[in-house]
Amino acid sequence: MTIRALPQISSSRNGLGAFVLQCKTMNLYYCDWAGSSKGMNGFIKSLFPKFAAANPQIEFTVSPRPSKHPVIVANYINGREKAICVRNMEPYEILKKIELLRDASGEKVRKVTKPVTSINESVRGVWSPYHGNGLRV
């Protein structure tokens, strides 16, 4: 009788093996005639083509939204959505906001209680020479 190993189901950990960008789609809304969309119109004409070419893994949609302030909406692979209003911003400020949305994970902003998050917690805890019997100096 031969012994066969059980097939292991791999669990994906982002960054281990291949990195998967969390942002999947980004929608840019602007107004043609409103003054608050002046920066967004300049961004779409000048900086957006280079940014879109540098990030082919993100699906971009540019659509007009008359009589409204310009907004950038990002959708993530975990199903969440983040929106940032970019009214009265310059094109380079809008580029910074788009990079912020691209690099975000889509998770809710939470208070960090521990500096390190791990799947496997340490059994022993934090080591220090002053714990236990102590260190004689």
UniProtKB/TrEMBL annotation:
Any one cellular-component term (Gene Ontology): mitochondrial large ribosomal subunit
Subcellular location per the Swiss-Prot or TrEMBL entry: Mitochondrion
Pfam families membership: L51_S25_CI-B8
GO molecular function, one term: structural constituent of ribosome
Residues annotated as transmembrane: none
InterPro entries: Ribosomal_mL43 (IPR039927), Ribosomal_mL43/mS25/NADH_DH (IPR007741), Thioredoxin-like_sf (IPR036249)
Keyword Ribonucleoprotein: yes
Residue ranges of domain Ribosomal protein/NADH dehydrogenase in the record: 32-105
Main localization category: mitochondrion
An example Gene Ontology biological process: mitochondrial translation
UniProt keywords, alphabetically: Mitochondrion, Ribonucleoprotein, Ribosomal protein
Family of the protein in this entry: Belongs to the mitochondrion-specific ribosomal protein mL43 family.
Protein name (Swiss-Prot/TrEMBL): Large ribosomal subunit protein mL43
Lineage: Eukaryota, Fungi, Dikarya, Ascomycota, Pezizomycotina
